[in-house]
């Protein structure tokens, strides 16, 4: 039994034709289900708990990265499989999972390749792709063993579970099934006339603490914003997701 959770952005008129087409495809594939529309007034955890009680086995987030962030934090620890259908802008996570369109998503859900995926945990919330530090000046303490300090305000710092699109494939990092997260630090090494080149350093870890000379913002999966200091740790095999054959892990 499927539960499709529609982001509030889908109420916009420009998405209606594509939404109707998606619903027809799901019905034709035999994977239609109950539809529930998200809103600030709806208790998502309570909704999912009630739907699981009546037999829902698969929850599909229909929307963007922010939608997926909300749904993941509502289903962690529950016996359901998570799927995603990307709509609108800001769908980095769907692309990272090899899902590049609504049609891709419906076929992927139908094919139903299920993988256990690690999550990142920042304080008490979970993320699947990455957490981005807006201020590049930070001190990162690794598992109480050593620390890395970034002194350049122009540094880019990301805690990654999935491989970022701008990082070449084939590296032995960014595997969401290895029980580790990866800290990606990019420091400006050379400025040209048209672009700046960045030197990349990657540090695998299971737990870090991040602080800085001043309070910095950390955005998880393009959604919730946290303020330093924070603790981030790997949460191995935390969720079951429907993934595409075209994924890069």
Automatic annotation (TrEMBL):
<feature type="domain" description="DAGKc">
    <location>
        <begin position="45"/>
        <end position="126"/>
    </location>
</feature>
<protein>
    <recommendedName>
        <fullName>DAGKc domain-containing protein</fullName>
    </recommendedName>
</protein>
<dbReference type="Pfam" id="PF00781">
    <property type="entry name" value="DAGK_cat"/>
</dbReference>
<dbReference type="InterPro" id="IPR001206">
    <property type="entry name" value="Diacylglycerol_kinase_cat_dom"/>
</dbReference>
<dbReference type="GO" id="GO:0016301">
    <property type="term" value="F:kinase activity"/>
</dbReference>
<dbReference type="InterPro" id="IPR016064">
    <property type="entry name" value="NAD/diacylglycerol_kinase_sf"/>
</dbReference>
<dbReference type="InterPro" id="IPR017438">
    <property type="entry name" value="ATP-NAD_kinase_N"/>
</dbReference>
């Amino acid at each position: 039994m499927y539960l499709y959770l529609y982001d509030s952005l889908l109420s916009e008129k420009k998405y209606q034709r594509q939404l109707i087409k998606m619903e027809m495809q799901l019905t034709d594939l035999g994977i239609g289900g109950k539809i529930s529309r998200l809103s600030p007034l709806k208790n998502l955890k309570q909704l999912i708990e009630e739907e699981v009680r009546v037999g829902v086995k698969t929850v599909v987030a229909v929307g963007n990265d922010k939608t997926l962030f909300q749904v993941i934090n509502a289903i962690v620890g529950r016996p359901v499989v998570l799927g995603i259908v990307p709509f609108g802008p800001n769908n980095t996570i769907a692309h990272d999972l090899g899902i590049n369109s609504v049609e891709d998503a419906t076929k992927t859900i139908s094919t139903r390749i299920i993988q256990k995926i690690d999550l990142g945990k920042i304080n008490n919330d979970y993320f699947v792709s990455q957490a981005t530090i807006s201020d590049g000046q930070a001190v990162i303490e690794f598992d109480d063993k050593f620390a890395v300090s970034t002194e350049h305000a122009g540094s880019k710092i990301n805690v990654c579970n999935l491989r970022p699109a701008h990082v070449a494939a084939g590296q032995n990092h960014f595997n969401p099934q290895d029980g580790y997260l990866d800290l990606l630090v990019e420091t400006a090494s050379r400025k040209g006339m048209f672009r700046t080149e960045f030197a990349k350093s990657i540090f695998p870890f299971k737990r870090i603490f991040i602080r800085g000379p001043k309070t910095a913002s950390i955005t998880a999966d393009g959604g919730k914003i946290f303020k330093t200091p924070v603790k981030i740790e790997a949460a191995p095999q935390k969720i079951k997701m429907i993934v595409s054959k075209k994924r890069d892990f």
